[in-house]
Automatic annotation (TrEMBL):
This is Histidinol-phosphate aminotransferase. The keyword Amino-acid biosynthesis applies. One of its GO terms (molecular function) is histidinol-phosphate transaminase activity. It comes from Oceanobacter antarcticus. Keywords: Amino-acid biosynthesis, Aminotransferase, Histidine biosynthesis, Pyridoxal phosphate, Transferase. The lineage of its organism: Bacteria, Pseudomonadati, Pseudomonadota, Gammaproteobacteria, Oceanospirillales. Belongs to the class-II pyridoxal-phosphate-dependent aminotransferase family. Histidinol-phosphate aminotransferase subfamily. It catalyses: L-histidinol phosphate + 2-oxoglutarate = 3-(imidazol-4-yl)-2-oxopropyl phosphate + L-glutamate. Homodimer. Pathway: Amino-acid biosynthesis; L-histidine biosynthesis; L-histidine from 5-phospho-alpha-D-ribose 1-diphosphate: step 7/9. The keyword Repeat does not apply. It comes from the Bacteria. SUPFAM superfamilies: PLP-dependent transferases.
Amino acid sequence: MSVDFQQLAVAGVRGLKPYQPGKPIDELARELGLNEADIVKLASNENPLGPSPAIIDAIQQQLVELTRYPDGAGFELKAALCERLGVSASQLTLGNGSSDILDFAVRVFVNQGDNVVVSQHAFSIYGLVTRAVGGEVIEVPARNFGHDLDAMAAAINDRTRIVFVTNPNNPTGTYSTRGELEAFLAAVPEQVLVLLDEAYFEYAEVEDYPCGLDYLSQYPNLLVARTFSKAYGLASLRVGYGVSSPVVADLMNRVRPPFNVDSFALAAATAALRDDAYLAKSIAANRQGMVQLVAAFEQLGLSYIPSVANFVTFKLPDGSDDREVNQQLLQLGVIIRPVANYDMPGYIRVSVGTAAENQTFIDALAKVLA
Ligand SMILES: *Cc1c(COP(=O)(O)O)cnc(C)c1O
């Protein structure tokens, strides 16, 4: 007798579709017989600058400790975060990427049959981790591709445990202003957690963009998630953190696997926080790359969603098929991200690369659309 393991899986997991990551460079190289060096990947909002020497040095110094378990409490990294952010260690939760933080929050607060509120066109991980525990997802229609925070607050019901707010949002690059966020925080019932995902915080340079940490003292139901994967350039190492009230952080740390952040990630993130020059360079390069991409879209007559992050989403001309355009770009060695699965058929998200990578993408796109 064969066992049907599909039926043995918990109900929430049975219906899940795995997260679709950007295609890795070596996978495309294998498929097309291309040189990895000839491929440009602008599909996962990674930092295009490569690692800074300070990070490589920090990792090298850790190599002799390879046989030891990491510091499960992350003392040094937490100390560096406290200094940088002006928070206390009791407010911090370290994650294997900030994806861990989203997952912990759901595991701590969402019972089977509870729900979370998300925006249309929001990061798919929120729904994935919620459904896995038998939670439901209330999706609120976007307004001009951004979060409609008034409608999100109004969608909260008796079974709502978490509202996910992504600022700036991925994949749209839109942001909620200080005034919008403040009105929202005031409107959310105090027993509902607001998970403010600030994965792209460092890139948002607009004047009315709010810093979530400013509201922690006023709102014990606020949890801010940040990552080292984007502006700090450590995506491969998997390290992020949550900042919240100590009570929430304590609960988060109860479900956190004890060694979820490894020694290399801890050392690299600690060094990255002190590497102001790299961060400034990342942000400046992004600003220039965004200008380059937007100018190209205008030149090509393509409409795009103005973005304050390190990627921009544009609309293909009517009648062109996003899967077809994607395939043709892949043939030319350019990996981007169609976002049809984010309820945006006909749109493509491109991460800001180096000037040369951006140009390769622009040339390939012009060729495909010609
Ligand atoms: C990239 C990203 C994250 C962070 O992912 P990590 O797990 O930290 O690599 C979180 N939220 C959003 C919206 C993202 O785009």
